[in-house]
Amino acid sequence: MESEVLSIRIRKGTSTRLKRLGINGSSKARAYLENLAWKAEAKRMTDEMAEIIKKYSKPSKPGFAVESIREDRNAH
């Protein structure tokens, strides 16, 4: 797996506290940022799909759902 380097600054003492608590700050930051990127990409794609649906779909005529359900019930 290829990787990139991202350097961040945190408040003084934070790294020491994390180490004392047995928390690997690097892996936690990496996991958080990867999850954040995944969620942001999923939201962007969902928003794009919603725009496409909005652009190309037409609203159903009033009473369509009731009519459709009635037809389905009567067919069985």
Description of the structure:
By secondary structure, the chain is mainly α. It has one domain. The protein contains three helices and no strands. The longest helix has 32 residues. The mean pLDDT is 94.
Mean of pLDDT: 94
Overall geometric form: elongated
Number of strands: 0
The largest sheet, given as strand count, sense and whether it forms a barrel, is: none
Radius of gyration: 25 Å
Could you outline the blueprint of secondary structure elements for this entry?
Elements lengths: L13 H7 L4 H32 L7 H12 L1
In short:
This protein has 76 residues and is mainly alpha-helical. 67% of the residues lie in helices and 0% in strands. It has one domain.
Keyword list:
76 residues; elongated; mainly alpha
